[in-house]
Amino acid sequence: MEAILANATDIERWLDTMLAVAPDEARFAQIANVFVKHPDDVLFLGVLARYENTPEGYLEAQSWQDLAETLLLYETRLRVSVTATVSEAYLHYVVNTSAPIPVGTQEDDFDVFAYAQRYAGLFNITLEEGTDPRTGKPATLMTIDDPNEPIVCAEWGAIAGKSSAESLRAVAAEINKSRYGRNDVIASTFFPYDVNQDAYQSALAMRLADMSDLAYNNPEYIAEETARLGFLETVFINNDNTDTQLFITRNADAVVVCFRGSQQRADWLGNLKVRLIAFQPPTPINPTQKTGSLWRQILQILAWIFSLIIRRPSEMGMVHRGFWAAHDSVWREVYEQVQDWRKGRKLYITGHSLGGVLAKLNGFVFESVGESVDGVYVYGAPRVGNQAFATRYNAQLGDKTFLHINGGDLVPKLPPTWLFYQHVATHNIRYFADDSHHVTVGSATAQFEENPELPGDDTPDTEIEKQIALEVLQERTRETLYYSNLHRERRFIIDEQLEDVSYSMEEESGIRADHSISEYMFKLACGLIDVLFDTLNIERKS
Question: Fewest CB atoms less than 10 Å from the CB: which of 143, 356, 480, 513?
Fold first, then answer.
């Protein structure tokens, strides 16, 4: 290998031959083998990432940066076993990159449906042959989280005039959109995080964003997916009266509390629920239930009384009435489960949208009853209380709370500041400006507050104007929540969507994407891949 591909020129000449046609799976495997055996993998990937040519069947020069990216993402597993890994890596290359693949009548013949089944299986999604109940014609039935109501798709297979790889890319884009709301997905499992590190970690932020997305599914599917992510046990908590759902899961190192956001409801902006009430730490246990030893219960009650003496409720600020009621309805169950499982493990609390605001409250309440929290990671979350509450929150938990905000996301602008609401941990905000994945920390708060394209911070002069403004914001928020979760409601996928599928690795924008947890995940992934490309001294294309 050293004699054949000793320098950049030799590698380029080899690529001239290997990439004269877009790689099928066998050619992809050859490239992967050369990569893992090359004595200078950085040199090899650097040359590959910069390489451009016009492969057979293409009219314009093509970049191979996405091929280098795929090898980077799968590097650890490829080095363990190319044979065991290369098929999955090729699936990712075809489905989740815009890199050249065999086109038209080029030879790459494989069973498209079987490959789609394998790809779907990576996310615990099943594909079966069945019948469209509307027409009686053959169809593909895709089951994500409800086996009694599968998504009815066209009869997926080879598309006329397209190669097997092109057909798979089109089919799998629909799998991605049905699960994550995007054509393209970068899995959180590509990026390991260090549980012993206390500072912010983008890899941990992405894993918890993935779990926040997962929270929108039903308990059975959540249990399957948390197991795939390496968690040992998962429990679910639901309060129908306040429409509050969450799951708690644990592995050997950590306990994660993950609150579900609201998919459509925006009544938390209503005139009654939006009012502020004084924060008061709840008792850490339910006196009517026996949890732990008698002495442990006595010590917990004494700690709670002491906390009220040294921190009067009136000095702890005020919080949103509706948010507080929702959190209070599940607090004791959450507390007892965390106490049962923690046993020295880290405690992370997370959520998207309204789930994010409950995560912030949950973290603060845990700290208020003497239980340390290791990180609160939230995405597209509303404000929770007034400035006094934010000040108290920041003193206890500000350095361990990380808000992620999309520049065009309406929800974090609410409730409006003219109702005396303020964000917590503003120095730790991760702000994605416009439709970019490049993040600004802390200082972005000013940009966020002054964004003239979103309502929420222009102060109405009268009570009537305030009520009208709230009604307008409530309707816009309802629309935002609806569109950001629209992919979860799809039950039929028609043939024309496969023929006209659009593909893009770029960040999306607009009302559907700006608040979507999937877009937060994708932007975090792009930032992590940028870091990988930094090791090659290459600027990754946006």
Answer: 143
Amino acid at 193: Y
Phi, psi of 484, rounded to the nearest 5 degrees: -70, -15
For residue 158, count other CB atoms closer than 10 A to its CB.
17
Dihedral sign, Cα of residue 225, residue 412, residue 387, residue 314: negative
- Say what the alpha-carbon torsion angle 447, 448, 454, 456 is, to the nearest 10 degrees: -120
For the residues 366-374, what does the mean pLDDT come to? 92
Contact 211, 250 (CB under 8 A): no
Q: Measure the N-to-C terminal CA separation of the chain; round to a whole number of Å.
A: 33
Copy the structure tokens of residue 87: 């098929």
288-333 pLDDT, tens digit per residue, is 444 555 665 665 556 555 555 545 545 679 999 999 999 999 999 9
Instruction: Tell me how far apart the alpha carbons of residues 123 and 6 are, in angstroms, rounded to a whole number.
Output: 40
pTM here is 0.89
pLDDT in tens, 179-233: 888 888 999 999 999 999 989 999 999 999 999 999 999 999 999 999 999 999 9
What is the full DSSP assignment across 214-262? Answer: HTTS-HHHHHHHHHHTT-SEEEEEEETTTTEEEEEEE-SSEEEEEEPPP
Nearest to 262 by CA among 456, 410, 480, 431: 480
Amino acid letter for position 191 = F
Rounded to whole angstroms, how far apart are CA atoms 265 and 478?
6
Distance CA 196, CA 152 (A): 44
Which alpha helices (DSSP H) does 243-330 contain, by range? 294-310, 321-328
Q: Residues 93, 96, 100, 102: is their CA dihedral positive or negative?
A: positive
473, 455 in Cβ contact below 8 A? yes
Cis peptide before 192 (omega within 30 of 0): no
Q: How many other CB atoms sit within 10 Å of the CB of residue 103?
A: 18
